Amino acid sequence: MAKIANDKTQSYFITFEGGEGSGKSTQIQMLADKLKKNNVPHITTREPGGTPESENIRELLMSGGKDRWDGVTELLLMSAARREHCRKIIWPALENSQWVLCDRFVDSTMAYQGYAHGTGRAAVEQIQNVVLHQFRPDLTIILDMPIDVGLKRAKARGKTTRFDNLDEQFHQSVRDAFLDIARREPNRCTVIDASGSMEAVHDAIWQVVTSRFAVT
Hints:
8 helices, alpha/beta
């Protein structure tokens, strides 16, 4: 594996997290457009997915009945997809001085499988240490909103996944988990109210990004 460190001066790894319907994909694209205007080399990607192999695993995870997999199996599948994603897409891009904007990463695994599905923080941390070693995002933006609003938005997209169809208690556990992760790692994580307009949320994200990193 190539040597990866988080002391980069020209490229940064920014992850977007949040519950279903929180607007991650929209905000990633808006940030990507802003970086492009500022001549910042970057790529956008998503998890699970990003490579053909990881997209195949995504299909396994997202389709079928809500009880198709238990939390441990989901954790293992997510981690396998993440390893290939990092090895083939994320790490090479960072080494090539490109910023990487990613829709979900390890915090989603911690929130969904570790907290909401009950596999526990220790299990997630142990497996991710094997998969990622010491690699972590430079900045994690957590888009937060009430679960009823997020689920309504998700269902309005017209195509739901296994996770969309889980009960409200599960989704509340996910929301609480993200907020707990942010409390545990305030230097890396920033929580942004995602219930406002797309433009207002984007402006808040841009303020965070420019306060952390040099955009030239």
